Amino acid sequence: MTKHSVVLDACVLFPMYLRDTLLSTADEDLYLPYWSQKILDEAIGNLVKGGKLSQKTAKNLENQIKLAFPEAMVEVPVALEQAMTNDPKDRHVLAAAVTAGADIIVTNNLKDFRENELAPWNIKAQSPDDFLSDLLEEYPDSIIELLQQQSQKYKNPPKTFTELIDFLREKADTPKFASNILFKVQRREDNQ
After folding, report:
1. pTM for this one?
2. Pairing between strand 124-126 and 73-74?
3. Does residue 171 have a pLDDT over 90?
4. Residue 36, strand partner residues
5. Domains by residue range for the chain, with CATH
6. What mean pLDDT, rounded, does the chain reach?
7. Taking CA 166 as the corner, what is the angle to CA 171 and CA 20, rounded to the nearest 5 degrees?
8. Quick check: 174 and 129 in contact, CB under 8 A?
9. Of 67, 79, 90, which Cα lies nearest the Cα of 11?
10. DSSP at 1
11. CA 81/CA 93 separation, integer angstroms
């Protein structure tokens, strides 16, 4: 099974639990993540602007992401970004995907990545809900285990596995993924 190469747009790196889930699945080597400095700047800038993190904490988060995934950073040539035909504010994201040789862009801004603009590059855009649901189909045991581990690392406030899944469904806009997780966990318990 070929691993997907995936550019994570800034909008999916912004919500904490979604970011943690996407980065945990990448850390588990279920796909290869990519981003550019411009994508990270946008995500980190929005965390500070939105009052979610202080400038210092946000910079620390950025450094942790870069340390955890040193191979994920791509340098996007300006000329390539200018050659893109998708929504102007997201041309840098498509250019990062082309530079990385990615086959998927995970974004909540699907309207900014129309199929006809991605087709020449053999790239598709997916919502985090669809992307994580596809990963769950490919790696059900790994995803369930890593979400259980993810829920245990939250201390302030603590989160149970079910609370994390509920949060992903309601706040991270991944209802299909959350429902599929709960369904698979229930089936697993029924079979024991």
Report:
1. 0.94
2. unpaired
3. no
4. 74
5. 5-126 (3.40.50.1010), 132-190 (no CATH)
6. 94
7. 65
8. yes
9. 90
10. -
11. 8
